[in-house]
């Protein structure tokens, strides 16, 4: 009997660990227009503090020669006005915005403004932040 109890205990622990990992999965967004395509990864993707990674590409899928990028977030349903943060370019060619507060679950509005040598590109979309556990 102790072997059965131990096996059940291990199954419960494994299930809880899997649920925790699933809850911590990042959110992924794909926003595009004819001129640009932005991929956004938000981790952990739940209420709290999020880290944003931005891949800014042309409409053809090549990296845009961006000089400056800004991330702006708002949560209109909760009265949270737009909050803007400058992104920093990493050695991998991706832009990052660490430690962004996502204090509430809900449908957030995201805007990315990218400045290239030849044009300014702005893309917007909404994403859902689930409640944390």
Can you characterise this structure?
By secondary structure, the protein is an alpha+beta fold. The protein has a single domain, classed as Periplasmic metal-binding protein Tp34-type (Immunoglobulin-like). The chain has 1 helix and 9 strands; from the N terminus they run H-E-E-E-E-E-E-E-E-E. The chain has one helix at 2-23, and strands at residues 27-32, 36-43, 48-58, 68-75, 80-86, 88-89, 95-102, 106-115, 120-129. The strands form 2 sheets. Strands 1-2-3-7-6 form a 5-stranded antiparallel β-sheet, with no helix packed on it. A 4-stranded antiparallel β-sheet has the order 5-4-8-9, with no helix packed on it. The protein is globular. Residues 3-22 have low confidence and may be disordered.
* CATH fold descriptor: Immunoglobulin-like
Secondary-structure content class: alpha+beta
Indicate the mean pLDDT: 85
Please give the number of β-strands: 9
Q: What does the radius of gyration come to?
A: 19 Å
CATH architecture: Sandwich
- Following the backbone from N to C, one meets helices and strands in this order, namely HEEEEEEEEE
The CATH H-level superfamily is: Periplasmic metal-binding protein Tp34-type
Give the helix tally. 1
Note the gap between the termini. Answer: 34 Å
In CATH's first tier, which class applies?
Mainly Beta
Give, in spatial order, the strands making up the sheet with the most strands.
1-2-3-7-6
Q: What's the overall geometry?
A: globular
Helical fraction: 10-25%
- Strand-residue proportion: over 45%
Q: What's the story with the biggest beta sheet?
A: 5 strands, antiparallel
Domain module count: 1
Low-confidence stretches: 3-22
